[in-house]
Amino acid sequence: MGVSAFLYRFQAWGECWDFLGVTPRRKLANGTGGAKLANGTGGAKFASGIANSPVWSHFRAVPAHQDQCADIKVRITLMKQEPDDGTTLNDCAGRPATSTLVLLLVLTFIAMAASAELVLSEIQTLKHPAEHLGCDLNPLIGCSASLTTWQAHLLFGIPNALVGVGLFAGLAGVFLAWCSGQIPRWLGVLIEAGLTGGMVLIAFFLHQSIFEFTKLCPFCFIVWTCTIILWVQLGAALMRLGWLFPGTGFARIWTAQRWLITAIILLLIVLVVAVTLSDKLVYLF
Q: Domain coordinates of the chain in residue numbers?
């Protein structure tokens, strides 16, 4: 073993440290000491002095050191990669991916706008009861028949649409805050619980629309669709964060198949409407 071999081993270890983000001063490999050691008169003397040294045996196992360095590189590369289940580095930091938060925000604003339109439609109905609203398209699609009923004022007589505007506005504020930082775990779980309650209300309103009013409110359907997607997507985000059902098969299936779950729920609603209001489907064409 010569001095050049020693320098090669030392430089290999230096490259390993460089990959880890540490840059030690490697005078033997790159500095003036290295040149003197390799090319000067002290090189041979130094080599003969350390050839039998116990320290030299540490550098003698070159393949092992190279394997260790390669293993470290592989481990760090794997740590930088995102898992296959949709979890991102933001998830590990307590925040969903930016694309997920943008989706939640867009859905929230759409639902809030639809709720606001329902509020305006109810005001218009109260002012001019005999007028047809813009949402009254045909005998199947219309909203004026349900705006002034008790089903549309469940909370102490307050219009459901007005409550929806306030709730979706607050939800948008939470998602905006989440984009720039973290929120407490209890708040995320509380929002998901509220959306679960919203899913129960959707089932109730769908039943009333089909069997009581025999009409479908278009703005209501927009709010329902946004709520369903919010419920599924936020639930998946919380499960990826480990805030809901951590480490369970249910969480893995939900996060991996979240869009399929959303499509199934929406398809079930369409099928229920198609079966129960089949005599009015002709008005869609």
A: 3-80, 89-284
State the Cα–Cα distance between residues 235 and 100, nearest whole angstrom.
11
> Could you tell me what percent of the chain has a pLDDT over 90?
55
CA neighbor of 258 nearest in space, from 85, 81, 89, 84: 85
Give 160's contacts (C-beta < 8 A, 6+ positions apart).
118, 152, 153, 154
SS3 readout for 96-148: CCHHHHHHHHHHHHHHHHHHHHHHHHHHHHHHCCCCCCCCCCCCCECCCCCCC
Mean pLDDT of the chain: 79
**From CA 58, how far away is CA 70, in angstroms rounded?**
18
Assess whether pLDDT exceeds 70 at residue 91.
Answer: no
Residue 140 to residue 122: CA distance in whole angstroms: 19
Which class would CATH give 89-284?
A: mainly alpha
CA-closest candidate to residue 228, choices 189, 249, 200 = 200
Instruction: Let me know if 145 is exposed, middle or buried by CB neighbors in 10 A (0-12, 13-18, 19+).
Output: middle
pTM of the model: 0.69
What is the mean pLDDT of the segment spanning 217-228?
97
96: nearest Cα among 258, 266, 284, 271: 258
For the cut 70, the answer to whether the pLDDT of residue 281 exceeds it is: yes
pLDDT of residue 135: 87
Closest by CA to 191, choosing from 264, 259, 139, 244, is 244
What are the tokens at 13? 């270890």
Is the pLDDT at 80 greater than 50, yes or no? no
Report the C-alpha gap between 91 and 143 in whole angstroms. 41
